[in-house]
Write a structure and sequence with these properties.
30% of the residues lie in helices and 13% in strands. By secondary structure, it is of the alpha/beta class.
Length: 208
């Protein structure tokens, strides 16, 4: 695996106020471990959609306590329990709360990897993301060229506990209603019933 530490250090020391969005999936735990070794108090944003697996919430709380994380749970503005479709639901519960929170930061760390999806195949360690307001952040993907095997090797080497849902066959874990065990080798095939590849947070919003 490529050493991701130099990317993390460069972003932390040279660019600006950092933040990390964390789903507590395997790759995010690797990035979180790398960052906390350099800056233990970095804000860690979790999208509290109201639809997560109970196992995800329990694991989040366990690791937040164990690593003494500066955890910030982001909630949607409204509490609409019956959004009209999956696009509206992701927009309400993920995209809007996150983009609103990102306004106060300059560096956005992610757990994105090229191998995850065709939409991420050309990913670079550093990129730019412009919010609807026009503000531009530096978007950092320390694991951009890591494989699934690399991720799990790191977790094993550093004895980092993993979310128990992986032991039940899940490979990409989001909200419970939109996550299934994949049928085949595509790790993200169990998301949204195959109807889309991204929830929207890694797609630049349209601006007026």
């Amino acid at each position: 695996m490529t050493d991701a530490t130099p990317v993390v250090r460069q972003a932390l020391r040279e660019i600006g106020k950092p933040v990390f969005t964390c789903s507590f999936q395997a790759e995010d735990m690797v990035v979180l471990d790398l960052i906390r070794r350099e800056q233990p108090d970095i804000p860690v944003l979790f999208l509290e959609t109201g639809y997560h697996f109970s196992e995800t919430i329990a694991y989040r709380d366990e690791m937040a306590a164990k690593w003494r994380l500066n955890l910030i749970n982001l909630l949607p503005r409204a509490n609409d329990q019956h959004p009209p479709d999956i696009e509206a639901c992701c927009g309400l519960r993920k995209v809007e709360p996150l983009f609103r929170a990102l306004e106060e930061y300059e560096v956005w760390f992610t757990g994105l990897r090229r191998e995850q999806s065709p939409t991420r195949a050309s990913l670079q360690p550093f990129g730019q993301h412009t919010l609807a307001s026009g503000k531009t952040l530096t978007k950092v993907a320390p694991l951009f060229d890591w494989t699934w095997k690399d991720v799990w090797s790191y977790l094993e080497i550093y004895e980092i506990p993993h979310l128990s849902l992986y032991d039940r066959g899940y490979t990409s874990i989001g909200c419970e209603p939109c996550t299934a065990v994949p049928d085949g080798d595509d790790k993200r095939a169990g998301r949204w019933g195959g109807r889309k590849l991204e929830c929207g947070i890694h797609i630049e919003p349209a601006r007026d």
